[in-house]
Amino acid sequence: MSTVLYADTSHKCIAFTDLVEGDGIQANQFLIVHEGEGMLLDPGGNLTYKHLLAGMAEHFLPSHLDYVFASHEDPDVVASANGWLLITEAKILIAEEWTRFLPHFCTKGMTTGRVIGIPPAGMWVELGGQELAIVPAHYLHAVGNFHVYDPISRILFSGDVGANLVSGSGAAAVIEGTAAFAAHRASAGMEAFHRRYMGGRKVCALWAEMVRGMDVEWIAPQHGASFRGKETVAAFLDWFAELDSGPDLVDAADFHYPPPR
Q: Which residues form a coiled coil (predicted)?
């Protein structure tokens, strides 16, 4: 099932939240369409490919897919790369660090001339005449990591930042308000996830400061429910900027030999 997050006469943002069933972690896929041209964000792997293709067709012609954006290199992000390259003329946008890793998901030669390496500072991408911003999110959690900001809908598609562990139906929920954010953070595993997966307080704070300088109305992560409204976004950034995570939390006890039996 798809959910339209934003729509006007020329522009749409669509979320797919319930395509993964069974053993795989819940993951959201997003589609931005402008003037009939599309960008697919973090399409996932074999668990999502067929259903995502069918769902996209309800909103635009898949033959008009210009880009597949991969926030980082994980299999739940872009393991289906070969399929999209096979059936469309789209190019894959991925961090420069991962351009030579991506072919491991693909048939030999499939990626030739079809991959755009995103430089560390990010870049602008034109979709149907409209520019979208690709902004840095390095070490959150991958060393080469990016998010997409859509200036029309004012949605920041935030990859693993903001991830919350809920079902596919639960991921369609929209969290609004400071109190609702605090309650959801406590109930949906956000603290544990971010403390384990993020790259430390320094990068969390730098990312939050960058986002405060953007006109963000909605944060839509790759896993779980999204966070809408200026109040909610501010509450999220205040929490995230102060988060101890990753290397902040390890010490000598985490590196020992022999391992337990």
A: none
